[in-house]
Amino acid sequence: MSTQSKNASTMASVSQAVSPGLENIVAAQTVLSHIDGAAGRLVVRGYDLDSLSSWSFEAVLALLWKDLTPVYQDVAHISEALSRARIRAFALVEPLLMATKTLSHVETLRLFLSSLSDAEPEAHHIMAVAAVPVFAAAIARRDAGLAPVAPVEGLGHAANFLQMLHGEEASPDKVKALDTYLVSVSDHGLNASTFTARVIASTKAGMFSSVIGALCALKGPLHGGAPGPVLDMLDAIGHERNIHTWLANTLARGERVMGFGHRIYRVRDPRADVLKKAVGTLQRDSPRINFAQAVEREALSLLAEKKPLRPLETNVEFYTALVLEAVGFPRESFTNVFAAGRMAGWTAHVLEQDQVGKLIRPQSQYVGPMPQGQ
């Protein structure tokens, strides 16, 4: 075959493979999680999400990291290592807070994570997971005019997060609800931020660079920015008597109802079901929950009428907003709390990509002009 024919053949094969957004392109094999969008199923290392919802976040870390790292493979050792790493992370907080007071929550978290050194002696996947709640809680308190609160030795991951946020020990119901949330978002296939982490990891840039890149992808409103707007929508509706009219008018204008629909799930998001159960234990802590569930019922009814062949179902953002508000997070911090949970998956994917050891280098299809006369 001539060189020209080979080039034409290569261009043709590349052309056939082009998929904007990489939809339906398999870019990696993984043991970490599987999404069945048609069935509304999420499997994490052999376990359905519903069965994992009773696990602690630390136990899910042990599951995700299993066989990917030689250190800290059991829950007890992971918990001890996280405790040490929280203290190391907290030592970085005070000097950085004043320098970041004009930045948003997620921009500040990005800067804080950038302060983690590749020379850090603690295992980097441990440090990344431990640091985010320390930083996120301090950032939320900064905006409330409050001093940061140090982590408490002996408290679990979710309990420490709320302790550092509020300056006092949280109720068991709130701790369990946050734990369930962190577990529910711990990993979710090759989403934009996880793919970003794997691309960076494939260059051997290291754990911290990889998860910072993932956070930058998460910052985008098409990926991690939807839970806050769910509360904005509930604020705008205001009262149960307004629910039908507000939703009907929104749909008539062709606008999106926040907290419904998902790019992958064609039925109900399984994470929404898990978080709905968690919300049930918090109803006395948040008067908004009963109202929100009335909004959900009416929205599902109207969406089914509008798109009977492909109705939009409740997604994870709807109940994320209710859980995080009920346990006391300001809505500006929701993306950072999401990052705290997804850090489990990001770190696991980086560790898995390190085992693959191959640079991710896809091709592009050139559609511009060629030089004249050739």
Task: Describe the protein's topology.
Elements: H1 3-17, E1 33-36, E2 41-44, E3 47-48, H2 49-52, H3 57-65, H4 75-90, H5 93-97, H6 105-114, H7 124-143, H8 157-166, H9 172-184, H10 192-202, H11 207-218, H12 227-237, H13 243-252, H14 270-280, H15 288-306, H16 316-326, H17 334-356
Antiparallel strand pairs: 1-2, 2-3
Helix pairs in contact: 3-17, 4-7, 6-7, 6-11, 7-8, 7-17, 8-9, 9-14, 9-16, 9-17, 10-11, 10-17, 11-17, 12-16, 13-15, 14-16
Share of residues in strands: under 5%
Number of helices: 17
Total strand segments:
3
CATH superfamily (homologous) name of the largest domain = Citrate Synthase, domain 1
- Silhouette: globular
How much is the radius of gyration in Å?
22 Å
Question: How far do the termini sit from each other?
Answer: 20 Å
Number of domains: 2
Strand order of the largest sheet: 1-2-3
Helix content: 55-70%
Largest sheet: 3 strands, antiparallel
Order of helices and strands: HEEEHHHHHHHHHHHHHHHH
The overall pLDDT, averaged over residues, is 91
CATH fold topology of the largest domain: Citrate Synthase, domain 1
Provide the structure class.
mainly alpha
The low-confidence parts are 1-14
CATH class of the largest domain: Mainly Alpha
CATH architecture label of the largest domain: Orthogonal Bundle
Describe what is shown at a glance.
The chain has 374 residues and is mostly helical. The protein has 17 helices and 3 strands. The two termini are 20 Å apart.
